[in-house]
Design a protein that fits this description.
- The complex is a heterodimer of chains A (about 110) and B (about 110).
- Chain A is about 0% helix and about 55% strand.
- Chain A is mostly beta strands and about 110 residues long.
- In chain A, strand 7 (about 60-65) and strand 8 form a beta hairpin.
- Chain A starts with a strand and ends with a strand.
- With about 110 residues, chain B is an all-beta fold.
- In chain B, the strands form two sheets. In chain B, strands 2, 4, 5, 6, 9, 10 and 11 form a seven-stranded mixed β-sheet that branches. Chain B has a four-stranded antiparallel β-sheet with strand order 1-3-8-7, with no helix packed on it.
- In chain B, strand 4 (about 30-35) and strand 5 form a beta hairpin.
- Chain B starts with a strand and ends with a strand.
- Classes of the chains: A mainly beta (about 110), B mainly beta (about 110).
- At the A-B interface, strand 4, strand 5 and strand 10 of A face strand 5 and strand 10 of B.
Chain lengths: ~110, ~110
C-alpha cells in the first residue's frame, strides 16, 4: 500500500525559512495537500497542489512537487512563532481511490 | 458561519460503555468522514459516507458504528468492543468523495 513519510521534528529560528518534506511511494494521487494542526485542534487546510504542477506559491507558503523523486515540500518564508504546529502532508485519490493517505506529521518548533 | 462542529470536546468512557461523538456540518457537503489520531501517527480512516443513508467501512472500523440519517450529521459510536478507544477523533467533510476535506476541531476520548 501507499507509504507517506515525514521527518518527525524541525526546529528553526524566527524569521528564517522552514522546509518540511514529504516522500511517498504511490504516484497516482490527483491532489497533494498540506494541513496544519495546532495543539488540541483539528486540521486546518493550508494549501494544495494539483499533480500536474511543479510549484505553487501562496503568500508565505511555497509548495514544490518533484514527481520523479516522489517528493513534496512545503516552504514557509519568514517563519513566525505562530507557525509552531504539526504539519501533515496528505495524498488525495491515492491508489486510484477516494482515500486520503496522511503522513505521520512534522512538528515544527519556532525559536524566538 | 459555515463550518464543521464536533461535540463534546472531551469525552470520558467507562468500561463496557458505548459513547457517541457528534459531528455536524453546515457546508452542504455530501461526503463525511471519521478519523482516529494517535500520538506520533497520521490519521486513520474509521468510516466514511458519500451520501445520506449510505456509509462504508474505512481501515479501522472494528468496534465503531455510524449512521447518516441527515446530510448535516454523521455521529460516531464507540462501542464496548473497541478495546483501545483512547484517541483524538476527527470528523471531516467534502463537497463530494473526491473533493478537498475540511476538518472539525476534534473530540478527545479518554477511558476512566
Amino acid at each position: 500500500g501507499e507509504d507517506v513519510e515525514q521527518s518527525l521534528f524541525l526546529s528553526v529560528r524566527e524569521g528564517d525559512s522552514s522546509v518540511i518534506n514529504c516522500t511517498y511511494t504511490d504516484s497516482s494521487s490527483t491532489y497533494l495537500y498540506w494541513y496544519k494542526q495546532e495543539p488540541g485542534a483539528g486540521l486546518q487546510l493550508l494549501t494544495y497542489i494539483f499533480s500536474n504542477m511543479d510549484m505553487k506559491q501562496d503568500q508565505r507558503l511555497t509548495v514544490l512537487l518533484n514527481k520523479k523523486d516522489k517528493h513534496l515540500s512545503l516552504r514557509i518564508a519568514d517563519t513566525q512563532t505562530g507557525d509552531s504546529a504539526i504539519y501533515f502532508c496528505a495524498l488525495g485519490g491515492a491508489e486510484g481511490t477516494y482515500k486520503y493517505i496522511f503522513g505521520t506529521g512534522t512538528r515544527l518548533k519556532v525559536l524566538a | 458561519d459555515g463550518g464543521i462542529t464536533q461535540s463534546p470536546k472531551y469525552l470520558f468512557r467507562k468500561e463496557g460503555q458505548n459513547v457517541t461523538l457528534s459531528c455536524e456540518q453546515n457546508l452542504n457537503h455530501d461526503a463525511m468522514y471519521w478519523y482516529r489520531q494517535d500520538p506520533g501517527q497520521g490519521l486513520r480512516l474509521i468510516y466514511y459516507s458519500q451520501i445520506v443513508n449510505d456509509f462504508q467501512k474505512g481501515d479501522i472500523a472494528e468496534g465503531y458504528s455510524v449512521s447518516r440519517e441527515k446530510k448535516e450529521s454523521f455521529p460516531l459510536t464507540v462501542t464496548s468492543a473497541q478495546k483501545n478507544p483512547t484517541a483524538f477523533y476527527l470528523c471531516a467533510s467534502s463537497n463530494d468523495i473526491q473533493g478537498t476535506q475540511y476538518f472539525g476541531p476534534g473530540t478527545r476520548l479518554l477511558v476512566l
